[in-house]
Amino acid sequence: MPYALGIDVGGTFTDAVASDGAGRIVSAKTPTTPPNREAGVMRAIEDLAAELGVGVGELLSRTDYIAHGTTASINALVQGTVADVGLIATKGHRDSIYIMNAEGRTLGRSAHEIQDTLRQRKPAPLIPKYRALEVTERIDHAGKILVPLDEDEVRRVAQSLVDQGVEAIAVCLLWSFKNGVHERRVRELIHEIAPDLYVTLSSEVSPRIREFARTSTTIMNAQVGPRLRTYLLPLQEQLERSGLKGPLLVMQSEGGTITADRAPEHAITTVGSVLSGGVIGGMRLAEQLGHRNVITTDVGGTTFLAGLIVDGEPVMAPGSIVNQFPINAATIRVHTIGSGGGALASVDAGGNLRLGPQSAEAVPGPACYGNGGTRPTNTDANLVLGILSERGLLGGRKPLRMDLARQAIREHVAEPLGLTVEQAAIAIHEVQNAQAGDLLRRAVVQAGYDPRDFVAYAFGGAGPAHCAGYCHDLGVSEVVVPLGPVASAFSAYGLAASDVVLSAELSDPSSFPVDPTVLESHYARLEADLRRALDRQKVKFHDVTVQREVDLRYSMQVTELATAVPDTEFTEHTGEEILQRFEEQYERINGSGAGYREAGVQAITYRVRAKASLGFPVALPEVAPAESPDPAEALLGERSVCLDSRIGFVPTPVYDYARLRAGHELVGPAIVDVPTTVVVVPAGVTGRVDRLGNLVLRYT
Question: Is the whole model's pTM more than 0.70, yes or no?
């Protein structure tokens, strides 16, 4: 029987899921093992094999594919552990990366930070100026060569960078997105000098107008590409030596996978890979439950992540920002804050309780792990409050130390604030819920939607413990906690259930609507590029679907909206149909009557996304029905738990999730113990187990 595996390497834990395609799904959770994260991956596979009752070699030999989400790229960028990169730019244009389009002080900043002009700072440059060199060439806005490439100068510049010991070179020439011939020749000349050097071209990585964003994307791709290659290729070789026959696939920011041997070439597309798995898992679960609009909430060890699914599809963004630098890579729009289970609690100079963004991560971890951590975290607070059992996590393999948790909270929070340890713990718990709830509200409302039209899904190691709290004031109709066989490995389930997704784009700024023959030409070119890219994946596809879109804006505005383009023959009416879609979307976000077509509309970038199904069924199986709504057969006992600062500690029934059946009903306060997490059902909330084993929470 074949298998599909999903492996999600987070900052604290590595989650894994295996599905046999016939209704059996098992999951595993092991600590992440930095810096050698592949050790944690192999350990998770060993645990999956044990759950299935087979050897690792047998499991891998029968695995159709492994879909892998990795933090390697994003961690490298955030922490600065990147390759030394050189830049080759058109003469007179190398400084675009330092000028930053006059927006470097505000990119990626909150409204509060933007208003605080005295404290605004540009980030440290991506590369030092002595590694940013120029060559003579010029292509105009139409793609016509005005000044030929000076190849002797390219050789001298390339040799200079090689002599400096760079590990990669980024090439970003002016207007290369219209004609990449000079960039391709530069790569050939570099490889004459250093055949194995990693070289990335802006015309391949980011063929969009706007020089600064295109250059920053290309440089960051070069910074993480070599590191990703040194991580993925040995991992792939180790898996193959252990028996893997199918491909190793890597999740990308836009919610689909790419083969591991191609991923380093497009490393920047993997920056949000671990953020996408939960949203894709939510989309698959929503298909089974019949939900069209979903807010996905994933509380891991380090971060709180929120994504939106609207009309059955994830809400996308054309790019993202890391360290105040833009990245031109389509991505599932995921909102994030550093407020996970390992978020560090502290008291600032003004006597205010802070939670995050710093995290205890996997090493040393929360104080209660007993691995040397001394600062209190959200996990320590939940242990003191009785939400977590001292028996610990991972089915008892990760015992928790109450004495260390209390000591950390006492020293760093309780005594500075004049509180008892218990009062400090409930304050930490409530700050976590408030921060998460605030992020959710912004994520939904700022996207132009009403939270009352959505269902919330809560997963991750700490999500089920907090979801009833952070969703309380949001107004959602219900909160679904995926349990059953995936429990807190839900993001890994999303990876296993993902498709291969590739995209291609080109910029051609012009007034819109354009002649139908122009649309036909652009999309024919992009779709041909995607067909060739899919062929290079060397993966058998079940079927392929194609989505077209174009980035439109009103004249004189600086931001665009990605607008769906119909998958039909282009006629003189097509432009009007696209304009209507653009205006409906614009007014949904900015308010009725905000649009003004009389100002003119411009098309900037055309895009095609191909989704190729791997054809492996990874649907969640149904669970056995209960004989009655009474969950007494799943009762483990009770423990003293504090879920509300106004009530304090109360005896609270504790249920074993493995014994819960479809139709069982819980009335809060209650706790559901899962080997890798807990579900909190506060007073005023009821929970009902659905046909897939999920616990559905409703406010009474």
Answer: yes
Closest by Cα among 570, 556, 566 to 602? 556
If residue 230 lies in a helix (H) or strand (E), which one and from where to where? helix 211-241
577 contact partners, CB below 8 Å, separation of at least 6:
566
Other beta carbons within 10 angstroms of residue 532's beta carbon come to 9
**Tens digits of per-residue pLDDT, 375-428?**
999 999 999 999 998 876 656 567 889 999 999 999 999 999 999 999 999 999
Treating both helix axes as pointing N-terminal to C-terminal, what angle do 463-470 and 421-445 enclose, rounded to 10 degrees? Answer: 70
Helix, coil or strand: residue 631:
coil
**Calpha distance 264→250 (Å, rounded):** 10
User: What are the C-alpha distances in Å from 398 to residues 364, 388, 637, 662?
Assistant: 13, 12, 21, 29
Query: In the structure encoding, which two tokens stand for residue 250, read together?
Result: 């890597």
Q: Which of 143, 92, 34, 21 is nearest to 362 (CA)?
A: 34
Give the pLDDT confidence of 610-644 residue by residue, as tens digits.
988 888 888 888 899 999 999 999 999 999 999 88
State the pairing for strand pair 649-656/670-674: parallel
Q: Quote the CA–CA distance of 104 and 121 in Å, as a whole number.
A: 8
Q: How many Cα atoms within 13 Å fall on the side-chain side of residue 213?
A: 16
Closest alpha carbon to 281 in 265, 293, 300, 296: 296
* Distance separating alpha carbons of residues 586 and 580, to the nearest angstrom: 10
